[in-house]
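User: Quick one: structure for sequence A, then sequence B.

Assistant: Sequence A:
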Amino acid sequence: MKTSVTDKAVIVSVIEKVDSGNSSEFEKELLKTAEENKGKRLILDCSELTYISSAGLRVLLKIKKLLSEPELENVSKDVYKILSVTGFTQILTVKRKLSGISIENAELLGAGANGRVYRLDPERIVKVYNSVSNPPEKIRREQESARQAFVHGIPSAIPFDIVRVGDEPGMIYELINARTLGSIVHSEPQKLEKYALEMSALLRKLHSTEMENGTMPDARLTLRLWADIASKSGYYNDADMQKVYELIDSIPARNTFIHGDFHPGNIMVSDGELILIDMGDASVGHPVIDLLGAYQLMSLTPKKNAGAAMRYLGMTAEESVRMWDIFIRDYFGTEDNEKIKQIEESMKSFSLIRTLGGIVFSDVIPDDKRSFFSAMVMKDILNNTEKTDLIINAL
């Protein structure tokens, strides 16, 4: 067996077959490696493993009992079946080997900050993730979040397989004749108002869904993650960042279902029904957190950068801003222009927290301009913090 060691883990490449004929040698080598690297994660790379017998499984149990829990990665479909039937997927960390697929000649349906969505065939789409901002743990969490949403009656696409597309991970969904809401509005502008109202109804449905305690993470954690990125960047002083953290903590805790990245680029239309995708940030919390992403992508950003709406939502800036206006009026049930203005001002500080972190690694901001933009965004946040109570109390 080949072994490689890092600061935190020891990775062992498992041979092609582990059975009664070689399990003793397998056990001896594995025990020796684990003993020599106590305190480190023991990762078994099963890329070459095609079969493991009960004798091999007993070795894994012995290692778990005596030293540390082995983590199995790149497990083939056949080996995974063995581990699943015998219950080992319940007691060990087991990660399947990703099948490779090609998106050559596939139709691009939409693109966003987290990745792109392609049509594979009439019944399936694939979401291809940007690897940097989407580690494997987040993708697996999205798979579980989508399942939780579906069983609670939320119209969401069920991801049924995690795959690899070139060097990037992907998730396959079964969605027949589906297109992004943004692309439909752009190609059929006469439907903009209709879909803005349906989008509002969908978000109200999400926000009337209560999840069980402990089912999903706290939505404020995502905002804190963006704040942590900003805090570690060196662009912001500690006193200002403390105010940002206090702003996040001012959002009340709730068990309301939160999508986390709600906008027309993450909503598919399948046979006339709105279906949610991109559940990587799904969580529970105060409804304001869902409104932030939509406000930023559909209103704030397009007004400053017209090309961003087409890039992230698949529609023009004018279409996006108009759709937002219809959507937000219907969501809050008001045509009062002054009230809508106050609501948007109240959301602004919260919505810009993501931008604080986004500036750090944005590929469209020159390095010599990051300090300027970071100072400008922080000023906008701090200038609006006194208005945030309005949106909190309105929901």
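Sequence B:
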Amino acid sequence: MGVPAIDHARLMRASGERIEAVAREGTARQQIVARRLIEDPAAWRLWEREHDQLMRKVAAAQRGGQSAALKSTAFALIQRKALFEYLSEHRLRGEARRRAIAMFYGARAYTDAMIAEHGNFVRSACSHLCSNHIGTVVMLDGAFQEPMARYEELFREYFRTFCDVSLHERDETESLRALLPYLKHQLTELRTAILAMPRTLPDLFYEARIRRPTGDTVRMPRPR
């Protein structure tokens, strides 16, 4: 028996509720990202507009295709947040960070590019949290758990390797350069496999844990 089609209003409602839940009870990193969005009315409105367009594409898909549309959305969001994650995880500073930003932003002013990239990360990370939640809890598709987590891990490895190769001297990265085609092939194969996966029931214990009341649980105000 298939999962009933999910309309746009429900997708947006589930997304807003997810951001509020993560801001209260998510991991430390998730809370920071969600609260930055919630506490900045301008950022919230921009996220809402962008996320609205993403969810309209999912809602417009035929019932059997909504899961595939949401998976494609999740893939894109993983890519969109990768640069800021790379900068943060590698703690790039000074000239190294400027060179990394210039690879993706060209001649745009460095400070403006960094502000834009941080905002892009916050919105993309929040939409990614929503997409995984909707796929797991609303669509009841286990592909949004372990398989999608594996794809994200592999994409980070590919993106890290790509940036390292691009930012360092050729003789320092020859072995990494040879690895890039292999990683890209793995990504393509895994993406194809995830899109083709039949729906399997997810493990919802994690969802139950993050919804468990805590001493400081309060409803976060949503900016308008």
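The longest helix spans residues 110-138. The chain has ten helices and no strands.

User: Thanks, that's what I needed.
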